[in-house]
Amino acid sequence: MCPKANYKGQANGQNDPANIIFSANVQDYVAFWATTISNNSDDAVIIYNISPNSGNPNVFNPFRSDEEVRSGAVVPSQPDALPGTQTSVTFYSFESKVKTKGTEAFTIYFALYEVDPANPENQILYGCYYWDPTIQVQ
What we know:
Layout: E1 20-22, E2 29-32, E3 44-52, E4 64-77, E5 81-97, E6 102-116, E7 119-131, E8 134-137
Parallel strand pairs: 1-8
Antiparallel strand pairs: 2-5, 3-6, 4-5, 6-7, 6-8
């Protein structure tokens, strides 16, 4: 879907603010969700792969795509927002279980969609991007 030539930009460097440091225990789950400032209602973003940058991953088990349906998710009611109304909402993430403490570099691939100017009911692919953080589990 997104050939490497279409990727735009990357974050590199030891002092890169895009790197992540957090505390976790072995067997904790780490998950990544993606959304836009419009909560994907106008532009939308989808994470479609997370892979280690080294041939010998050591901190995380393989990341996998996950889908969860919350049948009683709360959304604003109309016209005054409250009380909220319950409805079924599907959430998507990429998750992994921590194998051990340490540092690992990843590439997180995501696709950005925009509202189709020819049909504002649809979203169309704008471009494919990636982020290459180093994740340190302490």
